[in-house]
Amino acid sequence: MKFLQDFFDKVRPNFEKGGKFERWYPAFEALETFAFTPAHTTHDGVHVRDSIDLKRTMFTVIVAMIPTLLFGMWNVGYQHYQAYGMEMSHLDYFLFGFWKVLPIIVVSYAAGLGVEFLFSVLRGHSVSEGYLVSGLLIPLTMPVTVPLWMVALGAIFCTLIGKEIFGGTGMNFMNPALLARAFLFFAFPAYMSGEIWTDLSPEAGHALVDGYSGATNLVTFDENFRNLPSPSDMFWGFEQGSIGETSVAACLIGALILVGTGVGSWRIMLSCVLGALFMGYLFNLLAPASMPSHSMHTPGYYHLLMGSFAFGTVYMATDPVSAAHTEKGKWFYGFFIGALTVILRVFNPAYPEAVMLSILLMNVFAPVIDHLVVEQHIKSRLKKSKLSRA
Amino acid sequence: MAVETAPAPVVEKKKEPLFSKKNIRTLRDPLDDNNPITVQVLGICSALAVTVQVKPALIMALGVIFVASFSNLIISLLRHSIPTRVRIIVQLIVIATLVTIVDQVLKAYMFDVSKKLSVFVGLIITNCIVMGRLEAFALGNKPWPSFLDGIGNGLGYGLILVVVAVFRELFGSGTLLGYQVVPQWAYDMGYVNNGLMMLPPAALFIIGLYIWAQRSWNKKLVNVS
Prior knowledge:
The complex is a heterodimer. Chain A has 16 helices and no strands.
């Protein structure tokens, strides 16, 4: 590490005020703080600083995403060979998925960070680390068959419209990665929904197995929920779907890391689950008895296992910027996400991936929730003070 | 209370030329500095609805230019004889008459476009830009400047409409005015039309981006709302 430190110290004068590359200071600063803890001190106000800065927070999230990423890579290969009826070793599954997923990640980072660096140089603010997370979240929410230029477009849209336009990381009111997915979902529906979830690049000497269906379990769910895979399959994630969403188990590991380090809010995760369970079981009670295959009959807990509920709850809903900020507000925010997800899933087959839309909608409402919570708090305090004076 | 509202009588020493500096500004301001859509944020509704393709957007723009300029002219001619209390109704009648003319002409000569624009031609009546200009300008100005003001605002509105429509048609269907622009080899290589551009929210995105671009080249507009 010494040589790296020496290198940074050597080139630093070029970037500081008056140096040759003064304009590029933000880019330099970004790379330097990526490698070393910054030596910045506060200029005024509070002088106690946590050693965890934004970069390290974001890095924790990335660590938490690694289980889903690794499992997603394995599952991509597994689904591919399943479709052709081939038995391979786990390493083969993984390697196949690895080579399919890696380009998507690289493109996502290249496009998004490109925009980010451009803006930081143009505007003269430091490169924000937020994209480190968004750049990995975007590939995880994509089907593996997505064309790479779409990923790039999504990443650019995410950084430009999702973040920079509002003033950069921390100013966005919607989760940028989800915004990118929603953008691609509406812009290129043929590539983001339907039977596109498994990579079907041809295998010499093998044909697709009979009865192969490329639909995710959310489509099955709308047709007849009793054809769903077994709960244990849905829990471990041996099913088709976006790269990172299939395994609830992997998301739970991520959730443990996030909650354990205090980066993600357990209130939001828990209230999302409660909201989904509440709605799911409420629908079970109200389900029409004359239609036994109606999706309202789906056992309530299935909603936690299906689709990207776990992924969205753990990594998307807990985004500290776009979620509700008050502790009480977080309960409402999460609860509504869970409840809305189930409502949309059951009653709107046109948009089976309801998690994405519910989180985006609640992102919009988060400030209102916070406002109401604060107002209510003020009112109750006023009431108390009046009572004590009387 | 000091009376500031009464406009000082304009003492004209000599006849003002038709295209004096002031008149030119009346015509030009709505294009950029005082654009009805991007600065005053009026008429958004129809800007979302009729901008999927360039052709309807152009026709719509022409319709609004016609209605805005002639209603401005007529109201300005009548401005001394309209009782203040009933002025809104008088303005509405004038606008409605003009809109009906536009609607009938479209139906007679461009039926397919008329069908595409559907209810939005009729809704020019409720377009805040037209009514706003009558209230803000035509009631207090002479016919000729009012006429120019109407044309200017119609043009400003049309400018945004056409810009938005060009982007939406180009990326949404790969055509411009109905002609294929994106070449076939691009589709063969995997390019796909952007379905989002066909949906109304796309117009909001583009208008938003336009406002962003406009405020970065025109510093006067920053922090003015």
